Amino acid sequence: MTRIYQAPTDVRFVEANGLRFAIRERGEGPVVLLLHGFPDTPATFEHVMSPLAAQGYRAVAPFMRGYPPTDIPARDTDMVTLGRDALALIRALGETSAVVVGHDWGAVAAYAAASLEPVRVSKLVAIGIPHPGAMRPTLAALWGARHLLYLRSPGAPRRYAAGDFAHVQTLYRRWSPTWEVDEEVFEAVRNTFSAPGAFHAALGYYRQLPLLFPPKVFRVVLSMPTLLVAGAQDPALTLADYELARGRRFSGPFRVVGLAGGHFVHRESPEAFVDVLLDFLGPPA
């Protein structure tokens, strides 16, 4: 039976960088922009939003470009466009700057936004992805990143949509092998990808990914306070991979924290992640 997309009702829309973005938000105060990755949705930050609101922040979690009910773009999405999306969302929310938190592709967007307009990113938090301009091609990292090739192949949308997006579960098990994932996590992802054109758009991020060298924008040295959160059981990356950016890409306060879990460490160790995040942010200025 063909799955029918069910649009969420707990969102509002803002115009940013030429698209209409659906956002979930909670609280009042300085904005903390929460950017999800693949294959995921803003639900990945659901456990973070209320604590941020209680701390005096305005937590905003958009559906990323191409993830309905956000618009599906006319062309594949590149890394710099993701950064411009984050910057445009900050402006659309009526702010001149914000804390930007990103996981996976959301982390890429956060790095890109901070590199494009550093003054707009007051603090930077990246989860599960080291800085693109400071990564090294270890054997473990290359093997762990093999999905970068097959997700960009011509037949990928058809193959990975088979069996009601069954391969999403395969990726979660591979990237976070110690996590027993609740079915509701997969259900949210399947629903989003069932919207016409959504899965093809999500894989467009991979089709535009340069395989050898990241865009020049990632050569910028950043000075804002930065927190990188890694999964201690991530099969592809170690804390040392995150530490490589210290001094090379960051000149300001810089912290790397390892928590129990794999690629989805913020969901695997939710309480510990919230504690680390709130400690890093402190009370709103």
Which short descriptors sum up this protein?
about 280 residues, alpha/beta, Rossmann fold, 12 helices
Overall description:
The protein has 285 residues and is of the alpha/beta class. The protein has one domain (12-281): Alpha/Beta hydrolase fold, catalytic domain (Rossmann fold), CATH 3.40.50.1820. The chain has 12 helices and 8 strands. It has helices spanning 46-55, 79-92, 105-116, 139-144, 147-150, 156-165, 167-175, 183-193, 198-207, 239-243, 265-268, 270-281, and strands spanning 12-16, 19-26, 31-35, 58-62, 98-103, 121-127, 226-231, 254-259. The chain has an 8-stranded mixed beta sheet, sandwiched between helices. Helix 2 (79-92) packs across helix 3 (105-116). The protein is globular and about 50 Å long. The protein starts with 11 loop residues before the first strand and ends with a helix. The model has no long low-confidence stretch (mean pLDDT 93).
Largest sheet properties:
8 strands, mixed
For the record, the CATH class is Alpha Beta
Assigned CATH architecture: 3-Layer(aba) Sandwich
- Which regions have little confidence, pLDDT < 50, spanning 5+ residues? none
Overall morphology: globular
Main sheet: which strands, in order across? 1-2-4-3-5-6-7-8
| Residues in β-strands, percent | 15-25%
N-to-C terminal Cα separation, in Å?
52 Å
Global mean pLDDT:
93
**Number of discrete helical segments:** 12
Total count of strands: 8
**What class do helices, strands and sheet pairing give?**
alpha/beta
What is the number of domains? 1
What portion of residues is helical? 25-40%
